UniProtKB/TrEMBL annotation:
Residues 70-260 form the KARI N-terminal Rossmann domain. This is ketol-acid reductoisomerase (NADP(+)). Keywords: Amino-acid biosynthesis, Branched-chain amino acid biosynthesis, Isomerase, Magnesium, Metal-binding, Mitochondrion, NADP, Oxidoreductase, Transit peptide. InterPro entries: 6-PGluconate_DH-like_C_sf (IPR008927), 6PGD_dom2 (IPR013328), KARI (IPR013023), KARI_C (IPR000506), KARI_N (IPR013116), NAD(P)-bd_dom_sf (IPR036291). It comes from Dimargaris cristalligena. The lineage of its organism: Eukaryota, Fungi, Fungi incertae sedis, Zoopagomycota, Kickxellomycotina. Its cofactor is Mg(2+).
Amino acid sequence: MSATRTIQTFAGRVATAAPTSRLGAARCYSVLARATRLSATPTANSWAAAATRFTSVPARTLKTLDFGGTKETVYERADYPKEKLQQIFGKDTMAVLGYGPQGRGQSLNMRDNGLKVIIGTRKDGRSWKKALEDGWTPGKDLFPIEEACQQGTVIMNLLSDAAQVHTWPTIKKHLTAGKTLYFSHGFGVVYRDQTNIVPPKDIDVILAAPKGSGFTVRRLFQDGKGINSSIAIFQDASGQAQERAAALGIAIGSGYLYETTFEREVSSDLVGERGILMGAIQGLFRAQYDVLRARGHTPSEAFNETVEEATQSLYPLIGEKGMDWMYSNCSTTAQRGALDWEKPFHDATKPVFEKLYEEVANGNEARRSIEKNSASNYREELEKELEAINQHEMWRTGKTVRSLRPENQ
Ligand SMILES: NC(=O)c1ccc[n+]([C@@H]2O[C@H](COP(=O)([O-])OP(=O)(O)OC[C@H]3O[C@@H](n4cnc5c(N)ncnc54)[C@H](OP(=O)(O)O)[C@@H]3O)[C@@H](O)[C@H]2O)c1
Protein backbone atom coordinates (compact mmCIF):
# COMPACT_ATOMS: atom_id res chain seq x y z
CA MET A 1 0.00 0.00 0.00
CA SER A 2 1.49 3.33 -0.99
CA ALA A 3 2.07 6.10 1.49
CA THR A 4 1.47 8.80 -1.13
CA ARG A 5 -2.29 8.75 -1.46
CA THR A 6 -3.79 12.19 -1.46
CA ILE A 7 -6.60 13.77 0.46
CA GLN A 8 -8.67 13.41 -2.69
CA THR A 9 -8.76 9.64 -2.38
CA PHE A 10 -9.17 9.92 1.37
CA ALA A 11 -12.14 12.20 0.93
CA GLY A 12 -13.62 9.76 -1.54
CA ARG A 13 -13.74 7.34 1.36
CA VAL A 14 -15.41 9.91 3.59
CA ALA A 15 -18.70 9.70 1.76
CA THR A 16 -19.18 6.09 2.78
CA ALA A 17 -17.06 5.86 5.93
CA ALA A 18 -18.25 8.90 7.86
CA PRO A 19 -21.78 7.77 8.73
CA THR A 20 -20.74 4.37 10.08
CA SER A 21 -17.53 5.03 11.98
CA ARG A 22 -17.12 7.52 14.80
CA LEU A 23 -13.36 7.25 14.58
CA GLY A 24 -13.42 7.38 10.80
CA ALA A 25 -15.57 10.47 10.92
CA ALA A 26 -13.38 12.14 13.51
CA ARG A 27 -10.30 11.29 11.50
CA CYS A 28 -11.64 12.65 8.23
CA TYR A 29 -13.07 15.66 9.94
CA SER A 30 -9.86 16.59 11.69
CA VAL A 31 -7.80 16.44 8.50
CA LEU A 32 -10.24 18.46 6.47
CA ALA A 33 -11.12 20.85 9.26
CA ARG A 34 -7.49 21.73 9.75
CA ALA A 35 -7.11 22.23 6.04
CA THR A 36 -10.13 24.47 5.66
CA ARG A 37 -10.42 25.94 9.16
CA LEU A 38 -13.95 24.63 9.36
CA SER A 39 -15.55 25.32 12.70
CA ALA A 40 -18.80 23.42 12.33
CA THR A 41 -19.59 19.86 11.29
CA PRO A 42 -18.84 19.75 7.59
CA THR A 43 -21.47 19.15 4.95
CA ALA A 44 -20.97 16.88 1.96
CA ASN A 45 -20.15 19.96 -0.14
CA SER A 46 -17.57 21.24 2.29
CA TRP A 47 -15.86 17.84 2.39
CA ALA A 48 -15.67 17.88 -1.38
CA ALA A 49 -14.50 21.48 -1.54
CA ALA A 50 -11.78 20.87 1.02
CA ALA A 51 -10.71 17.72 -0.71
CA THR A 52 -10.42 19.46 -4.08
CA ARG A 53 -8.38 22.33 -2.68
CA PHE A 54 -5.86 20.10 -0.91
CA THR A 55 -5.27 17.34 -3.39
CA SER A 56 -1.52 17.33 -2.81
CA VAL A 57 -1.61 16.77 0.97
CA PRO A 58 -0.38 13.26 1.72
CA ALA A 59 -2.99 11.43 3.76
CA ARG A 60 -2.92 8.37 5.97
CA THR A 61 -3.33 5.23 4.07
CA LEU A 62 -5.87 2.80 5.37
CA LYS A 63 -6.96 -0.61 4.36
CA THR A 64 -10.61 -1.61 4.51
CA LEU A 65 -10.93 -5.35 4.88
CA ASP A 66 -13.86 -7.71 5.08
CA PHE A 67 -13.97 -9.39 8.51
CA GLY A 68 -16.51 -12.18 8.14
CA GLY A 69 -18.87 -9.89 6.23
CA THR A 70 -18.23 -6.65 8.17
CA LYS A 71 -15.92 -4.01 6.70
CA GLU A 72 -13.29 -2.67 9.10
CA THR A 73 -10.36 -0.35 8.67
CA VAL A 74 -6.80 -1.30 9.51
CA TYR A 75 -3.52 0.61 9.45
CA GLU A 76 -0.31 -1.10 8.45
CA ARG A 77 3.33 -0.80 9.34
CA ALA A 78 4.46 -0.46 5.75
CA ASP A 79 2.92 3.03 5.72
CA TYR A 80 4.93 4.22 8.71
CA PRO A 81 8.60 3.73 7.96
CA LYS A 82 11.12 4.80 10.59
CA GLU A 83 11.74 8.15 8.86
CA LYS A 84 8.06 9.01 8.98
CA LEU A 85 7.82 8.07 12.66
CA GLN A 86 10.85 10.22 13.42
CA GLN A 87 9.25 13.08 11.50
CA ILE A 88 5.94 12.79 13.37
CA PHE A 89 7.58 12.51 16.82
CA GLY A 90 10.71 14.54 16.04
CA LYS A 91 9.90 17.17 18.66
CA ASP A 92 8.61 14.75 21.26
CA THR A 93 10.05 13.06 24.30
CA MET A 94 8.29 9.79 24.90
CA ALA A 95 8.09 9.24 28.66
CA VAL A 96 7.30 5.58 29.31
CA LEU A 97 5.98 5.13 32.85
CA GLY A 98 6.56 1.63 34.15
CA TYR A 99 9.01 -0.97 33.00
CA GLY A 100 6.91 -4.13 33.26
CA PRO A 101 6.52 -6.33 30.19
CA GLN A 102 4.75 -3.62 28.14
CA GLY A 103 6.94 -0.73 29.29
CA ARG A 104 10.06 -2.67 28.45
CA GLY A 105 8.90 -3.99 25.05
CA GLN A 106 7.37 -0.74 23.85
CA SER A 107 10.21 1.53 25.03
CA LEU A 108 12.96 -0.59 23.49
CA ASN A 109 11.08 -0.80 20.19
CA MET A 110 10.54 2.98 20.10
CA ARG A 111 14.20 3.54 20.91
CA ASP A 112 15.18 1.23 18.06
CA ASN A 113 12.80 3.20 15.82
CA GLY A 114 14.91 6.30 16.53
CA LEU A 115 12.54 8.14 18.89
CA LYS A 116 13.65 9.99 22.00
CA VAL A 117 12.53 7.77 24.87
CA ILE A 118 12.90 8.13 28.62
CA ILE A 119 11.73 5.73 31.33
CA GLY A 120 9.91 6.72 34.51
CA THR A 121 9.63 4.13 37.23
CA ARG A 122 9.81 4.05 41.02
CA LYS A 123 13.37 4.30 42.16
CA ASP A 124 15.05 1.05 43.15
CA GLY A 125 11.95 -1.08 42.45
CA ARG A 126 12.09 -4.24 40.37
CA SER A 127 11.49 -2.26 37.17
CA TRP A 128 14.21 0.28 37.94
CA LYS A 129 16.72 -2.54 38.27
CA LYS A 130 15.53 -4.15 35.05
CA ALA A 131 15.85 -0.84 33.20
CA LEU A 132 19.43 -0.48 34.46
CA GLU A 133 20.20 -3.97 33.16
CA ASP A 134 18.86 -2.93 29.75
CA GLY A 135 21.20 0.04 29.56
CA TRP A 136 18.93 2.94 30.56
CA THR A 137 20.96 5.51 32.50
CA PRO A 138 19.74 7.36 35.62
CA GLY A 139 19.56 11.11 35.02
CA LYS A 140 19.84 10.66 31.25
CA ASP A 141 16.96 8.47 30.17
CA LEU A 142 15.88 6.79 33.42
CA PHE A 143 14.01 8.85 36.02
CA PRO A 144 11.60 8.57 38.93
CA ILE A 145 8.01 8.77 37.69
CA GLU A 146 7.41 12.44 38.43
CA GLU A 147 10.59 13.63 36.73
CA ALA A 148 9.80 11.61 33.62
CA CYS A 149 6.34 13.21 33.52
CA GLN A 150 7.93 16.66 33.72
CA GLN A 151 10.25 16.00 30.80
CA GLY A 152 7.95 13.98 28.58
CA THR A 153 5.62 15.42 25.95
CA VAL A 154 4.01 12.05 25.28
CA ILE A 155 3.27 10.44 28.64
CA MET A 156 2.90 6.71 28.07
CA ASN A 157 1.23 5.27 31.15
CA LEU A 158 2.32 1.64 31.29
CA LEU A 159 2.16 1.26 35.04
CA SER A 160 -0.05 -1.54 36.30
CA ASP A 161 -3.70 -0.53 36.16
CA ALA A 162 -3.86 -0.33 39.96
CA ALA A 163 -0.67 1.78 40.12
CA GLN A 164 -2.17 4.18 37.56
CA VAL A 165 -4.85 5.00 40.11
CA HIS A 166 -2.39 5.82 42.90
CA THR A 167 0.05 7.80 40.75
CA TRP A 168 -2.63 9.82 38.93
CA PRO A 169 -2.39 12.96 41.13
CA THR A 170 1.38 13.09 40.44
CA ILE A 171 1.03 12.47 36.72
CA LYS A 172 -1.87 14.88 36.27
CA LYS A 173 0.19 17.84 37.54
CA HIS A 174 2.43 17.52 34.49
CA LEU A 175 -0.23 17.07 31.83
CA THR A 176 0.05 20.59 30.49
CA ALA A 177 -1.69 21.82 27.34
CA GLY A 178 -0.46 20.22 24.13
CA LYS A 179 0.92 17.05 25.72
CA THR A 180 -0.34 13.59 24.82
CA LEU A 181 -1.46 10.98 27.34
CA TYR A 182 -1.19 7.40 26.11
CA PHE A 183 -2.37 4.08 27.54
CA SER A 184 -2.26 0.46 26.45
CA HIS A 185 -5.51 -0.30 28.23
CA GLY A 186 -8.59 1.87 28.58
CA PHE A 187 -9.12 0.72 32.18
CA GLY A 188 -8.14 3.91 34.04
CA VAL A 189 -10.15 6.28 31.86
CA VAL A 190 -13.22 4.10 31.32
CA TYR A 191 -13.64 3.32 35.03
CA ARG A 192 -12.91 6.93 35.97
CA ASP A 193 -15.70 6.95 38.55
CA GLN A 194 -13.53 4.49 40.48
CA THR A 195 -10.03 5.56 39.40
CA ASN A 196 -10.51 9.36 39.30
CA ILE A 197 -8.43 9.39 36.11
CA VAL A 198 -10.04 12.34 34.34
CA PRO A 199 -7.57 13.89 31.89
CA PRO A 200 -7.49 17.66 31.35
CA LYS A 201 -9.42 18.77 28.25
CA ASP A 202 -6.49 20.38 26.44
CA ILE A 203 -4.44 17.25 25.82
CA ASP A 204 -4.78 14.34 23.43
CA VAL A 205 -5.66 11.02 25.07
CA ILE A 206 -4.93 7.98 22.94
CA LEU A 207 -4.48 4.24 23.24
CA ALA A 208 -2.57 1.48 21.51
CA ALA A 209 -3.21 -1.94 23.00
CA PRO A 210 -1.01 -4.79 21.79
CA LYS A 211 -2.80 -8.13 21.47
CA GLY A 212 -0.23 -9.96 23.53
CA SER A 213 2.32 -9.61 26.28
CA GLY A 214 5.12 -7.06 26.19
CA PHE A 215 7.55 -9.93 25.81
CA THR A 216 5.90 -10.83 22.48
CA VAL A 217 5.80 -7.15 21.45
CA ARG A 218 9.58 -7.05 21.75
CA ARG A 219 10.34 -10.48 20.31
CA LEU A 220 8.23 -10.00 17.16
CA PHE A 221 9.80 -6.58 16.57
CA GLN A 222 13.28 -8.05 16.87
CA ASP A 223 12.26 -10.75 14.39
CA GLY A 224 11.32 -8.02 11.90
CA LYS A 225 7.58 -8.63 12.40
CA GLY A 226 4.97 -6.75 14.38
CA ILE A 227 2.30 -7.69 16.89
CA ASN A 228 -1.26 -6.67 16.04
CA SER A 229 -2.75 -3.96 18.25
CA SER A 230 -5.87 -1.88 18.52
CA ILE A 231 -5.89 1.91 18.70
CA ALA A 232 -8.44 4.37 20.04
CA ILE A 233 -8.94 8.05 20.70
CA PHE A 234 -10.53 9.31 23.90
CA GLN A 235 -9.77 12.98 23.38
CA ASP A 236 -8.52 14.85 20.33
CA ALA A 237 -7.41 18.30 21.47
CA SER A 238 -4.79 18.80 18.76
CA GLY A 239 -6.83 17.61 15.81
CA GLN A 240 -3.98 15.17 15.16
CA ALA A 241 -4.76 12.50 17.72
CA GLN A 242 -5.78 9.92 15.16
CA GLU A 243 -2.63 10.29 13.10
CA ARG A 244 -0.44 10.25 16.19
CA ALA A 245 -2.19 7.22 17.66
CA ALA A 246 -1.67 5.26 14.45
CA ALA A 247 1.98 6.32 14.18
CA LEU A 248 2.60 5.55 17.84
CA GLY A 249 0.91 2.18 17.50
CA ILE A 250 3.42 1.33 14.81
CA ALA A 251 6.36 2.93 16.68
CA ILE A 252 5.85 0.64 19.70
CA GLY A 253 6.21 -2.37 17.41
CA SER A 254 2.84 -3.17 15.86
CA GLY A 255 2.36 -4.68 12.42
CA TYR A 256 -1.34 -3.94 11.90
CA LEU A 257 -3.67 -1.71 13.88
CA TYR A 258 -7.39 -2.25 14.33
CA GLU A 259 -9.69 0.58 15.35
CA THR A 260 -11.59 0.48 18.62
CA THR A 261 -12.84 2.79 21.37
CA PHE A 262 -11.55 2.95 24.95
CA GLU A 263 -14.81 1.37 26.15
CA ARG A 264 -14.78 -1.52 23.68
CA GLU A 265 -11.11 -2.22 24.28
CA VAL A 266 -11.66 -2.51 28.03
CA SER A 267 -14.69 -4.75 27.96
CA SER A 268 -13.34 -7.12 25.29
CA ASP A 269 -9.97 -7.32 27.03
CA LEU A 270 -11.35 -7.97 30.51
CA VAL A 271 -13.84 -10.53 29.22
CA GLY A 272 -11.20 -12.25 27.08
CA GLU A 273 -8.62 -12.69 29.82
CA ARG A 274 -11.18 -13.82 32.36
CA GLY A 275 -12.73 -16.07 29.72
CA ILE A 276 -11.20 -18.13 26.94
CA LEU A 277 -7.70 -16.68 27.13
CA MET A 278 -7.03 -17.55 30.75
CA GLY A 279 -9.81 -18.12 33.29
CA ALA A 280 -12.09 -20.35 31.25
CA ILE A 281 -9.28 -22.38 29.78
CA GLN A 282 -7.83 -23.26 33.18
CA GLY A 283 -11.35 -24.01 34.47
CA LEU A 284 -12.12 -26.32 31.53
CA PHE A 285 -8.77 -28.07 31.69
CA ARG A 286 -9.20 -28.69 35.39
CA ALA A 287 -12.79 -29.94 35.06
CA GLN A 288 -11.91 -32.51 32.40
CA TYR A 289 -8.72 -33.58 34.17
CA ASP A 290 -10.55 -34.08 37.47
CA VAL A 291 -13.26 -36.20 35.82
CA LEU A 292 -10.71 -38.40 34.04
CA ARG A 293 -8.76 -38.89 37.27
CA ALA A 294 -11.91 -39.67 39.24
CA ARG A 295 -12.72 -42.34 36.64
CA GLY A 296 -9.39 -44.05 37.18
CA HIS A 297 -7.20 -42.66 34.42
CA THR A 298 -3.54 -42.12 35.23
CA PRO A 299 -2.20 -38.58 35.63
CA SER A 300 -0.20 -38.85 32.38
CA GLU A 301 -3.22 -40.05 30.42
CA ALA A 302 -5.49 -37.38 31.88
CA PHE A 303 -2.92 -34.67 31.16
CA ASN A 304 -2.19 -35.87 27.62
CA GLU A 305 -5.88 -35.95 26.69
CA THR A 306 -6.59 -32.59 28.30
CA VAL A 307 -3.61 -30.29 27.83
CA GLU A 308 -0.77 -31.83 25.89
CA GLU A 309 -2.63 -32.83 22.74
CA ALA A 310 -4.52 -29.54 22.83
CA THR A 311 -1.53 -27.22 23.07
CA GLN A 312 0.94 -29.27 21.05
CA SER A 313 -1.19 -30.52 18.22
CA LEU A 314 -4.76 -29.26 17.90
CA TYR A 315 -4.72 -25.60 19.03
CA PRO A 316 -1.86 -24.71 16.69
CA LEU A 317 -3.98 -26.14 13.85
CA ILE A 318 -6.87 -23.85 14.86
CA GLY A 319 -4.46 -20.94 14.86
CA GLU A 320 -3.12 -21.86 11.48
CA LYS A 321 -6.31 -22.37 9.48
CA GLY A 322 -9.39 -22.36 11.68
CA MET A 323 -11.58 -24.74 13.65
CA ASP A 324 -13.06 -26.57 10.65
CA TRP A 325 -9.56 -27.33 9.43
CA MET A 326 -8.52 -28.74 12.78
CA TYR A 327 -11.68 -30.87 12.85
CA SER A 328 -11.06 -32.10 9.31
CA ASN A 329 -7.58 -33.22 10.31
CA CYS A 330 -8.96 -35.48 13.02
CA SER A 331 -10.62 -38.89 12.71
CA THR A 332 -14.26 -39.09 11.69
CA THR A 333 -14.98 -40.56 15.15
CA ALA A 334 -13.47 -37.46 16.76
CA GLN A 335 -15.34 -35.15 14.38
CA ARG A 336 -18.70 -36.82 15.04
CA GLY A 337 -18.27 -36.51 18.80
CA ALA A 338 -16.97 -32.96 18.69
CA LEU A 339 -19.84 -31.81 16.47
CA ASP A 340 -22.38 -33.39 18.82
CA TRP A 341 -20.83 -32.10 22.06
CA GLU A 342 -20.13 -28.55 20.94
CA LYS A 343 -23.73 -27.52 21.64
CA PRO A 344 -23.98 -28.76 25.26
CA PHE A 345 -20.67 -27.04 26.07
CA HIS A 346 -21.83 -23.85 24.36
CA ASP A 347 -25.15 -23.89 26.19
CA ALA A 348 -23.54 -24.64 29.56
CA THR A 349 -20.93 -21.89 29.32
CA LYS A 350 -22.83 -19.09 27.57
CA PRO A 351 -24.64 -18.00 30.76
CA VAL A 352 -21.24 -17.80 32.47
CA PHE A 353 -19.91 -15.56 29.69
CA GLU A 354 -23.04 -13.42 29.92
CA LYS A 355 -22.57 -13.03 33.67
CA LEU A 356 -18.89 -12.25 33.13
CA TYR A 357 -19.70 -9.54 30.56
CA GLU A 358 -22.21 -8.00 32.94
CA GLU A 359 -19.69 -7.95 35.81
CA VAL A 360 -17.22 -6.19 33.52
CA ALA A 361 -19.79 -3.75 32.14
CA ASN A 362 -21.12 -2.75 35.58
CA GLY A 363 -17.62 -2.08 36.90
CA ASN A 364 -17.56 -4.84 39.53
CA GLU A 365 -14.57 -6.54 37.93
CA ALA A 366 -12.67 -3.24 37.85
CA ARG A 367 -13.47 -2.65 41.52
CA ARG A 368 -12.20 -6.10 42.53
CA SER A 369 -9.06 -5.66 40.49
CA ILE A 370 -8.26 -2.21 41.91
CA GLU A 371 -8.91 -3.36 45.48
CA LYS A 372 -6.87 -6.54 45.28
CA ASN A 373 -3.97 -5.13 43.28
CA SER A 374 -3.67 -2.04 45.45
CA ALA A 375 -2.78 -3.99 48.56
CA SER A 376 0.84 -3.52 49.62
CA ASN A 377 1.36 -7.30 49.47
CA TYR A 378 -0.45 -7.78 46.14
CA ARG A 379 2.49 -9.50 44.45
CA GLU A 380 2.96 -12.00 47.29
CA GLU A 381 -0.77 -12.76 47.29
CA LEU A 382 -0.87 -13.32 43.53
CA GLU A 383 2.22 -15.48 43.74
CA LYS A 384 0.59 -17.64 46.43
CA GLU A 385 -2.41 -18.27 44.18
CA LEU A 386 -0.23 -19.00 41.18
CA GLU A 387 1.78 -21.44 43.27
CA ALA A 388 -1.46 -23.25 44.13
CA ILE A 389 -2.07 -23.75 40.39
CA ASN A 390 1.51 -24.87 39.94
CA GLN A 391 1.11 -27.43 42.74
CA HIS A 392 -2.10 -28.93 41.37
CA GLU A 393 -1.45 -32.48 40.26
CA MET A 394 -2.39 -31.61 36.66
CA TRP A 395 0.41 -29.06 36.28
CA ARG A 396 2.93 -31.12 38.25
CA THR A 397 2.17 -33.92 35.80
CA GLY A 398 2.67 -31.41 32.99
CA LYS A 399 6.29 -30.88 34.01
CA THR A 400 7.07 -34.55 33.48
CA VAL A 401 5.07 -34.79 30.27
CA ARG A 402 6.88 -31.74 28.84
CA SER A 403 10.24 -33.33 29.54
CA LEU A 404 9.23 -36.22 27.26
CA ARG A 405 8.32 -34.04 24.27
CA PRO A 406 10.15 -34.95 21.07
CA GLU A 407 12.17 -31.70 21.12
CA ASN A 408 13.39 -32.48 24.66
CA GLN A 409 14.54 -36.01 23.93
N1 LIG B 1 0.37 -7.79 29.70
C1 LIG B 1 -0.37 -7.71 28.62
O1 LIG B 1 -0.60 -8.70 27.96
C2 LIG B 1 -0.90 -6.38 28.18
C3 LIG B 1 -1.33 -6.24 26.89
C4 LIG B 1 -1.80 -5.02 26.48
C5 LIG B 1 -1.86 -3.98 27.39
N2 LIG B 1 -1.45 -4.13 28.68
C6 LIG B 1 -1.52 -2.98 29.61
O2 LIG B 1 -0.22 -2.41 29.72
C7 LIG B 1 -0.06 -1.81 31.02
C8 LIG B 1 1.19 -2.38 31.68
O3 LIG B 1 1.08 -3.78 31.80
P1 LIG B 1 2.34 -4.75 31.98
O4 LIG B 1 1.95 -6.08 31.46
O5 LIG B 1 3.56 -4.13 31.43
O6 LIG B 1 2.64 -4.90 33.54
P2 LIG B 1 1.97 -4.60 34.92
O7 LIG B 1 2.36 -5.70 35.80
O8 LIG B 1 0.52 -4.34 34.76
O9 LIG B 1 2.75 -3.24 35.34
C9 LIG B 1 4.01 -3.29 35.85
C10 LIG B 1 4.59 -1.92 36.17
O10 LIG B 1 3.80 -1.21 37.14
C11 LIG B 1 4.70 -0.75 38.18
N3 LIG B 1 4.01 -0.61 39.47
C12 LIG B 1 3.20 -1.50 40.09
N4 LIG B 1 2.75 -0.97 41.26
C13 LIG B 1 3.31 0.26 41.38
C14 LIG B 1 3.18 1.32 42.32
N5 LIG B 1 2.42 1.19 43.41
N6 LIG B 1 3.87 2.46 42.09
C15 LIG B 1 4.64 2.61 40.99
N7 LIG B 1 4.77 1.67 40.04
C16 LIG B 1 4.11 0.50 40.23
C17 LIG B 1 5.76 -1.82 38.25
O11 LIG B 1 6.91 -1.29 38.90
P3 LIG B 1 7.75 -2.20 39.96
O12 LIG B 1 8.50 -3.20 39.15
O13 LIG B 1 8.61 -1.21 40.62
O14 LIG B 1 6.74 -2.86 40.86
C18 LIG B 1 5.99 -2.08 36.76
O15 LIG B 1 6.85 -1.13 36.20
C19 LIG B 1 -1.35 -2.11 31.77
O16 LIG B 1 -2.23 -1.02 31.58
C20 LIG B 1 -1.90 -3.33 31.04
O17 LIG B 1 -3.31 -3.47 31.17
C21 LIG B 1 -0.94 -5.31 29.08
